[in-house]
Amino acid sequence: MTTRRSFIKTTAMVSTGLLMAPKLFAFAKKRPIGTQLYTVRDAMAKDPLGTLTKVAQIGFNTVEGATYTGTELFYGMPATQFKNVLRDNGLEMPSAHYVLGESMAKAKGTITNDWEKAVDDAAAVGLKYMVCAYLFDTERGNLDKYKSIAEKLNVAGQIARNRGIQLCYHNHNFEFVPQEGKLPYDVLLTSTDADLVKMEMDIYWVYKAKQDPIALFKKYPGRFPLWHVKDMDNTPEQKFTEVGNGVIPFKEIFTHAKEAGMKYFFNEQDVTPGDPLVSMAQSYKYIKENLA
Prior knowledge:
12 helices; TIM Barrel; globular
């Protein structure tokens, strides 16, 4: 199975070589139910048109992109073409993932290389959010390094904001490993401009790091407009599982959506036991009946 790290590296190599509980959401006029296309990354690589049709048939009405870095295309298509494909399937893509790019000097379409072009294409496809998806091992470091990353995010966030797009940062669990009595995640939050850089909270990884998402919402209200909704099974390995099958108390977490500033959420399951579309359908059913 393709990992997130290898998936991002592969797209870079290509380039260099090539819901219902409405009372919980009274603040929203419409509650999209989204999915991260990373869950179906292999299928999207082989047949993006057919896969998007199947995603829409499940019931999802929004998607979050997982590829652009390296190709400066959305699943092999320029922005306007991909936007039309989404429209034809009744889908919108308000958010997509990008990388910092320090470890991939030759890759374009990253925060540190050809970002202006990435922002232009994001605007053309209709994105509202651009997300720094992951920091490679060589891009991490001490707290000063995270402060340096925060400065780069501020610059990138201003460029995005000039086109009406919000930059966000997506967490894993390494940001919660203490350094000198502080968490790198707190450093990122306090060292970035709250208007220029917000957060996409991956709830699974927050739990994996033994952190409390609700406590983070209270500490940094309004900083979390995007969520990744993925569940954790009740085993020592803490594997990914379909939403509703695991131990994460999503019903309680969703009651804090307004405090968090949540606008969109995306179901994601990095690894599935079989066909990803089957797992996505199971998660969708639970989300629609219990959360959305």
